Every structure is written in structure tokens, then in C-alpha cells.
Amino acid sequence: MRGGHMATKFQSPPMHWKLASLAMFAALGSTLLGGVFLCGGAFAAPPATIGDYVWFDLNHDGIHEPDEPPIPGVTVHLLDVDGHPVLDPITNQPITATTNAEGKHDFSVVPNTTYKVRFDASTADTTGLPGHPDSHLLLPTMQHADVDPSKDSDVDPASLTAIVHSGPPGSTVTVHEGAYEPPHSR
Questions:
Q1: Residues 72/125, Cβ–Cβ less than 8 Å
Q2: Mean pLDDT (10-residue bins), the chain, 186 residues
Q3: Bridge partners of 5?
């Protein structure tokens, strides 16, 4: 006790409880009304979003430039802060996303929660990329190479992950990856 008051440490509910509550709102036929979920007469905040894009870093400088194309088909894994896959509360399968033709991906997530996002470029469709690189040889480019975070890669090349804290309900937090094929790798 401190100063006559019991000191307690708040622990956040486990991730699967948080995701299950989001799934419950969906299963109960929640609707989005004015940015707030309406569920059985109760209001709940909307999820946050983590997402953005993956691009082919032609010059391996870690900065996304206008002539550098998106990479479709990259598998993006949503992990908890400890690096374990976040499981879908309904299917009990790991939550993943695949980049579309514009290299975009996104996840609806529990707001104000720390996650890791891991990129697997071995699944990429590289047929439209200059030089048709082998997707199994693609590596993450340099991390945080620019002062403008919207133009550089957030992925740690050693772990293939980025740590990201989801924002408040309804917000979007971006995480980008640039990938390149090392010279003389084929």
C-alpha cells in the first residue's frame, strides 16, 4: 500500500478476448452508425486499422520514389507484441493479409494495442516488376531511411517485422515495406 491506498497494476485483457469482442459485435449484426458500432442497442467503438503498402525498391535506398512499383501478392502476418500469430477468434487461424495489385494491405485491429507485422515476400507476384525478380530472393530494404515516414520502409531487415501501435478507434496507422533483390543473387 502507498499512502493508505492499495497499489494495483492493471493488466489488459488477453488479445483473444479483445478480438473475440470485435467478432462478437460482427456476429450480433453490428452496424456502423456515425463512426460507432451499434450492437443490440449498445454502442462500441470501431476498430482501428493497420495497413498500407509494399513496394519494389529499385535502387535499394529505402525511400519509396514515384517510379518504384508496388508488389502484389506479399503475405502480411499480424502478430502480437511477443511475435506470436494473432488468431481469428472464429476460425482460430492466424490472421494474414495479401497485398493487392496496388501493393496495399490492411487489418482491422483492437485500438490502442501494440502489434508486430511480418512480411513474407516469397509469395509475391513479381511478373510485372522490372527484371522479374525471384520472389524468394526479395529482402527488406533499409529501415527508416527518410525523415518522412510515409516514404520509407518500417520493416527491420533482420526480423522481417515492424512494431506498430494501433491508434484510437477508427484511426489508421501505416506500415510500409520496401523490398529489393540483391545484386548477383541469381
A1: yes
A2: 32 44 47 42 72 95 95 97 92 94 94 95 96 94 89 92 93 94 79
A3: 2
Say what the pTM is: 0.76
Which domains does the chain show, CATH number per domain?
Answer: 47-180 (2.60.40.10)
Segment 41-47 long-range contacts (CB within 8 Å, at least 24 positions apart): 45/111, 45/168, 45/169, 45/170, 46/169, 46/170, 47/22, 47/108, 47/109, 47/110, 47/111, 47/169
Listed residue (52, 48, 70, 74) closest to 175, CA to CA: 52
Alpha-carbon distance of 182 to 160, in angstroms, equals 16
Is 155 within 8 Å of 116 (Cβ atoms)?
Answer: no
pLDDT in tens, 159-169: 999 999 999 99
Q: What is the pLDDT of residue 186?
A: 65
Helix and strand numbers, DSSP H then E, in the chain: 1, 12
List helix spans (H) across the chain. 15-27
